Structures are given as structure tokens and as C-alpha cells.
UniProtKB/TrEMBL annotation:
Source organism (scientific name): Paenibacillus oryzae
Name assigned to this protein: Transcriptional regulator
Keywords, ordered alphabetically: DNA-binding, Transcription, Transcription regulation
Keyword Transcription among record annotations: yes
PANTHER family found in the cross-reference section: ARAC-FAMILY TRANSCRIPTIONAL REGULATOR, HTH-TYPE TRANSCRIPTIONAL REGULATOR EXSA
Length: 345
């Protein structure tokens, strides 16, 4: 069953995914296409540029486009990160790999733009070179007007957008996979009726399929909290006046407790709580809380296979990008690199 979930069309509602893809193409000004692990399109193009549309309709040029898509996807998988390259017409394209637990399941192909800072293109690979330069030059002149209308971006803009698309796409796929696996687990449990349909009322009275995501969050929160609670931990604060705030932080790991909330728990004013806390720990409350959450994150990265986006949620970060930035601030490496290194030990 898990092998089946490694197919994009089994994980995602492709109609909804296409609407998201259309919106992303509109906002980023890039043409976007999603392909499976074999390189076959699972969506139609979003915002395909007129020039590229004409090129892909040309039977002599289409094979070059297909080779670019194929080689770009393979290179992105090899690097395990977005791969920016030049197509056979020296147009910028991007291959963004979609992976689950290190397994390649597809890619988002984006691009069809030109560089405004053309000097940056010297470091980019032209992934497919024409075997008939004269033919390419002739066809380019025939399509010159549409070629001149291609969007223009700086290299920095392209890198920023490609990283954003990578984080977003992999996050959505991981969340969809978690949801599908949870539903499958329930479907095969004693909560299924005689027709094999999910009967949540038999498993969790009062719940419905509409709040299946709430059930998933409750289950994963319990797993994370149980693991962290079972780990021996030395608390750095011994002042009994501050203890109510500390106890609340440790029992509500998925919340971002504010200074005001912590002070109220201890029946102190925020200013006095802040001074007392700094005297006890030699750092301010915000820094202490962030460092503590990173400490918990390291434990989860070392001993579980939880996706980084899920660990971010478990520890109350607003979004995984902010979690990654905070983790790198304290540990000098990203969560993914930390996990990879620690699990090799």
C-alpha cells in the first residue's frame, strides 16, 4: 500500500493541485508543470509562454524540450534540491524534486523566463545542446517576436522562487501523505463497517471525517509529547516562583507562550517576571524558550522519522521556514542536515 502512495496521483487531488499550480504560476510569472517520477506530466502546463508553446508543437523541437525536462529532473534528484539550468534555447528552467523519505516521486518543472543579469548565466549548464544549430537559429528567428516577450527576471529572484516552490510543494505532499495513511489505517481497523467504509463513530465517538486532520494532529502531538516527556531532562530553573510558567511550557510544547502569559501564570507583572527570569537564567525569556524548543527539536530529529514540517508544528512554530531559520541560528546547520548527520552515528 505504501508503494501506491509514492505515486503523485494517489497522494494528491490533482484537480486541486492544478488550481494551486495555476495560482503559483500567476503570482511567480513562471510557467509550471508537474511530472511523475518517470517524467510523465500529471498536470497540464500553467501559464505556458507563447514561445515555448510554439516550440513544443514543433515536431523537430519537441524532443529537445522533452530531453531538457528529463535531464533536469534527474539532475535535481541527484542534487536533492532545485536545479536551475538553461534549455536548448538558453531560456531559464527549474526542476524541483518532490521526495518522501528520500524517495523521488516526481518534480515540479518551472521556468520559461530570461535572465536580466545575463552574466549570471555563465555558471549555468545548458542541459541539452542542439545537434543542428542552423535549424535552431532559423526557428528562433521565425518565433523572434514571441521570444522577445518572455518574462525577464534576475538570477536572485529565480533562486528565491525556486526555494519557495520546493518548500511549499514538499510540505503539501508530506501533509497529504500523512492524511492518506491515517485514513487507510482507520479504514483497515475495526472501525470499518461491512462495506469497508470508514466508521469513525465506532473508533472515536463524536468525530467525523470532516475533522480527520484534528485527529491526526492529536495523535502526532501525543507521540511527540510522550517521547519528549520520557527523555531525562535537567531543568535549568529552580526558583519556585517561576515554576508555574516552566511547568506550563513543558506540558504545552506546541504553544508559543508569550512573556505576558508566563508572567500571568506566576502572578507577576511582565517587567518583574522578565527581570527575575533573566537573573535566574542569564538570558531573556524569548531566547530561553527558542533555545529550549530547538533542544526538543534535536531530540525528535535524532530518534524519529517525523517530517521537519511536522516537528515544526509540534513545537509551535508558525511555519516550517521560520523553524528552519531558527534552528540554523542556534545550531549553524539546517534540521535536515542535522538529522542526516546524527542518524549516521
Amino acid at each position: 500500500m505504501f508503494r501506491e502512495y509514492l505515486q503523485l496521483n494517489k497522494i494528491l487531488d490533482l484537480q486541486k493541485w492544478k488550481r494551486l499550480q495555476d495560482s503559483l504560476a500567476s503570482v511567480t510569472k513562471l510557467a509550471i508543470l508537474t511530472v511523475d517520477y518517470k517524467g510523465n506530466p500529471v498536470t497540464s502546463h500553467s501559464s505556458c509562454q507563447s514561445f515555448c508553446n510554439s516550440v513544443r508543437k514543433d515536431p523537430e523541437l519537441l524532443p529537445y524540450c522533452q530531453k531538457c525536462d528529463s535531464r533536469g529532473g534527474l539532475e535535481a534528484v541527484r542534487l536533492n534540491e532545485p536545479y536551475i539550468y538553461l534549455c536548448h534555447f538558453n531560456i531559464i528552467d527549474i526542476a524541483i524534486p518532490i521526495t518522501i523519505d528520500g524517495k523521488y516521486i516526481g518534480a515540479v518543472m518551472a521556468g520559461q523566463v530570461k535572465l536580466s543579469d545575463s552574466d549570471k548565466s555563465r555558471g549555468l549548464e545548458q542541459i541539452v545542446v542542439s545537434q543542428d544549430p542552423h535549424m535552431h537559429e532559423t526557428k528562433l528567428e521565425m518565433l523572434r517576436s514571441s521570444y522577445d516577450q518572455l518574462p525577464v527576471m534576475t538570477y536572485e529572484e529565480i533562486v528565491t522562487i525556486s526555494n519557495m516552490l520546493s518548500l511549499l510543494c514538499n510540505y503539501i505532499v508530506e501533509e497529504a501523505l500523512d492524511k492518506n495513511l491515517l485514513i487507510e489505517m482507520f479504514s483497515q481497523s475495526s472501525g470499518s463497517d461491512q462495506n469497508g467504509k470508514l466508521n469513525l463513530s465506532a473508533i472515536l465517538p463524536g468525530y467525523s471525517i470532516r475533522n480527520i486532520e484534528s485527529i491526526k494532529r492529536e495523535m502526532t502531538n501525543a507521540i511527540a509529547d510522550a517521547y519528549l516527556s520520557s527523555s531525562p531532562e535537567e531543568r535549568e530553573i529552580t526558583n519556585p516562583v517561576l515554576q508555574p510558567a516552566l511547568d506550563y511550557i513543558h506540558t504545552h510544547k506546541s504553544e508559543q507562550v508569550t512573556l505576558k502569559q508566563a508572567a500571568e501564570l506566576c502572578h507577576l507583572s511582565p517587567s518583574y517576571f522578565s527581570r527575575l527570569f533573566a537573573k535566574e537564567t542569564s538570558e531573556n525569556f524569548t531566547v530561553y524558550l527558542a533555545r529550549l524548543k530547538i533542544k526538543w527539536a534535536k531530540k525528535l530529529l535524532e530518534a524519529t522519522d517525523m517530517p521537519i514540517s511536522q516537528i515544526s508544528d509540534e513545537l509551535g512554530f508558525n511555519e516550517s521556514g521560520y523553524f528552519i531559520k531558527t534552528f540554523k541560528k542556534y545550531e549553524d546547520i539546517t534540521p535536515a542536515v542535522y538529522r542526516k548527520y546524527m542518524q549516521k552515528q
